[in-house]
Amino acid sequence: xxxxxxxxxxxxxxxxxxxxxxxxxxxxxxxxxxxxxxxxxxxxxxxxxxxxxxxxxxxxxxxxxxxxxxxxxxxxxxxxxxxxxxxxxxxxxxxxxxxxxxxxxxxxxxxxxxxxxxxxxxxxxxxxxxxxxxxxxxxxxxxxxxxxxxxxxxxxxxxxxxxxxxxxxxxxxxxxxxxxxxxxxxxxxxxxxxxxxxxxxxxxxxxxxxxxxxxxxxxxxxxxxxxxxxxxxxxxxxxxxxxxxxxxxxxxxxxxxxxxxxxxxxxxxxxxxxxxxxxxxxxxxxxxxxxxxxxxxxxxxxxxxxxxxxxxxxxxxxxxxxxxxxxxxxxxxxxxxxxxxxxxxxxxxxxxxxxxxxxxxxxxxxxxxxxxxxxxxxxxxxxxxxxxxxxxxxxxxxxxxxxxxxxxxxxxxxxxxxxxxxxxxxxxxxxxxxxxxxxxxxxxxxxxxxxxxxxxxxxxxxxxxxxxxxxxxxxxxxxxxxxxxxxxxxxxxxxxxxxxxxxxxxxxxxxxxxxxxxxxxxxxxxxxxxxxxxxxxxxxxxxxxxxxxxxxxxxxxxxxxxxxxxxxxxxxxxxxxxxxxxxxxxxxxxxxxxxxxxxxxxxxxxxxxxxxxxxxxxxxxxxxxxxxxxxxxxxxxxxxxxxxxxxxxxxxxxxxxxxxxxxxxxxxxxxxxxxxxxxxxxxxxxxxxxxxxxxxxxxxxxxxxxxxxxxxxxxxxxxxxxxxxxxxxxxxxxxxxxxxxxxxxxxxxxxxxxxxxxxxxxxxxxxxxxxxxxxxxxxxxxxxxxxxxxxxxxxxxxxxxxxxxxxxxxxxxxxxxxxxxxxxxxxxxxxxxxxxxxxxxxxxxxxxxxxxxxxxxxxxxxxxxxxxxxxxxxxxxxxxxxxxxxxxxxxxxxxxxxxxxxxxxxxxxxxxxxxxxxxxxxxxxxxxxxxxxxxxxxxxxxxxxxxxxxxxxxxxxxxxxxxxxxxxxxxxxxxxxxxxxxxxxxxxxxxxxxxxxxxxxxxxxxxxxxxxxxxxxxxxxxxxxxxxxxxxxxxxxxxxxxxxxxxxxxxxxxxxxxxxxxxxxxxxxxxxxxxxxxxxxxxxxxxxxxxxxxxxxxxxxxxxxxxxxxxxxxxxxxxxxxxxxxxxxxxxxxxxxxxxxxxxxxxxxxxxxxxxxxxxxxxxxxxxxxxxxxxxxxxxxxxxxxxxxxxxxxxxxxxxxxxxxxxxxxx
Length: 1211
Description:
Enzyme I, Chain A, domain 2, 7-stranded parallel beta sheet
């Protein structure tokens, strides 16, 4: 085996997951446990040891990015195996064959795999060939059209059932409720494997003549709910008894016997009701609760008062209040005397249920017809069609025989349709499912974590003889302090009743990193005190800030405090300072508050990136440009006209616009539209600049209208931006990069729209207006501009952070209320409980929530809470080195006292993440309280610092701004002295690597310092690394068209710096496409892109060095450095940039690219020359890399792009 390859130190459980065979395997892989590495290793061993072909394996996951990453990792793993088995020709041949097939391997998303089934076997279900996928936008348009068609038909038919349904559930002003009920139920049904079967089951349940409460899922949930609430009531009262009994005198006698007896009496009464529920007497228990429980008044006898101090009294009151609150909630559930009342509610809901299902099936039929007409299918169609196809025994048998092994990644995010699809093609013992139900956070996308939980419990119990589970809980990501807090918190709040699964010893994280040292910091909780009691002493600006603004200011302070702190980088194996790029600020949601944090960090001078997921169509640049498009399509629109005229595109002043209106008022007998007034002024207005300006505008509008009818839409939009120079203008104003990206995104949307053959400019405008109107249903975020190497703090949602890791995480907004899903509709849906309605009497105008409706909403709240806990788990397992928690709260000390009366694990009592954390972590979480006064002082210091900086920039550093005599200012003497001294040494103290190498080889004389005369007399040459002092006349003045060799080299380096490290770029076409993308994003110019040969870049990635880079665990590019070195007897500073270096084993491999022309005929002779020429340069790179990282460099490679060859440097 190649000693340079990194050997994985697999844990025993990882080995079990890799090697266990002959059975279905469910791998519960905790955060940071290396689940992807395990899956890849298992695939590799199947191919290597069992001779399995890539085409005999199915790997499915949930995102295209995850599928692409999986394919690349399997490719890299097989590539390493090819090198490791160089002496085994048979295995080499097998591996080469599998590597050639990897591009066509069944490693994809569920949807892509299902789509492939539909493409191949569309005829089995009677569909037309050539089906294409309907995007989300068009899908919404077709659904809207279908809804209009459905309701129009219903109104025309006058169906009494529909009219009655409308009377009950539409409002006086709108039928929006009815539309949403149809939409919500339709979407819900599409997530089920058998929508019509599910519907029929629940229609029959409502229409049944016999009601069995023991079998009814709603009553079962009610029983479980009452039992859980009463269990907590009894626990709180028993805890109260425990605290009272702990108060004893010196002889061990109870000090508070009377209070203890009173509380015990209440506990016994509640326990008796709980026992009734346990015996199956739910109705009797509910009747008892409906009567009300009279809690004993805790009056204190005179002899007990001395022992019943304020602290104990507050604790007892808090515990008992928690019990009373739960009893009050339970008493509201009992509104009937017997089960006949529930049965009657079912009967009352039956007509509405049947009508709604009929509407949904009609809607689905219209929608399906529209899709079929366009030969389209949507995402839900893909999986349902595939499932329908797999009902065919022959097709099902073919897939079952083809796939010897099936792998499901992120199994916790599966839904019922996907589960049914896999069930059709799997064998009895060939499933490998890996995921972490603790990280299942996509229930809003109809993921069903219950599938994972059910299978986990079933496999663990041994009920499935051919199936096993493996728990991976060694965390290789986080330091010990973070792991300890995670375990402490989630062992308390993540229990079966809260989340369906216990956070036990199999789930608890085990430290996988070997690091032990001072860089292992404990997480800290920062509480910003928003109390206003001392506001008279605080700056008025601070006093008026909201809680979230105060929290954001503190976030900036924490980030500044963390910047530069030393962390231990496990991957690099060294200590290093924290940079901004290492930091992430996570929140449950960024809409609204994200902008506040963004401004606070930016105001504090912190580089920050916020990916905005909404508001695209509300940006000023898009609004103005859309108004211009509206005018080109139809000029008779006053508001778009005024918007465009006043915009920087045409720059009409307010006075000019007013002059147009005044002229029209004076020359017309009646008031006309502004558009008509503008036309009149252009034709009949007084001669002068304004008339010509108006005429020019109209001529341009006519010209653009003509272009719009003859040119491709996307080309026309881009041409329009160039003609108006609007894209240049927006780049120059604040937020210009983002604004320009937004305009580019509009062009991309036009291209996508036109690709669907949906019409021209008019259709595109209507399309955009539809998207803008649907902003709550279709996420249209601003264009992303995040560069991979940007040194900036990222603000993102916890959902976006899933799958990522950061050295430092600041988890903010912890005191924000945990909100539960609520559609606000008179309809509630649940896969297990069915559907329930609000009971409406339209004649009397009253309504009541049915028990089914209430229980379904209760179950949804319960599941939302479980998901909220899992989201917190995801957030707290993102950091590698440091974790800070942040919340703004009024009087933190009072909150912490209140938390003392909350029992561990009572997550339903907690309304915020902060309350969960304080209750679960106890004293293990250090808390730092930040008063308002401290924030005020920090802001004042920041303002003073900025003021001093401004003063120093204006008057010079180290001076007194009060002095107004320039002669007294110390820096003025430099104005009178020459810039260059004749006596100064002729060799510079600071050199580039190339310059020093050339001087050492005496291939170029040392550069002398420059004088003013030199600037005038020197014939300046193009900038190169060995000639840093360079000025050149701009090419647009010289008329040059051909790039110099240095510029071509820069172009190649620019591309190699940015191109993603992916096997797809071993193909010339993919490189060409990437080059075009760089040009569009203005990262390289068209001339630079044309100078880069895609074949050379592709050849590099196919080379031995390129393959090693693609499979390396860590690759860094374009790393600049400055270091001290001895040269010609004196100490010099050397600066340079290392093109690329990557990890193999525990050492670096250094790579430098050269674009020099090389004659293939003299390549062997050239190698010797290149060794001499670049030996010093590469030696300096090696020395710098080893000094900075303290990791040895084992190999230095010079890669010649022109020759498509390389040489290893010798020193």
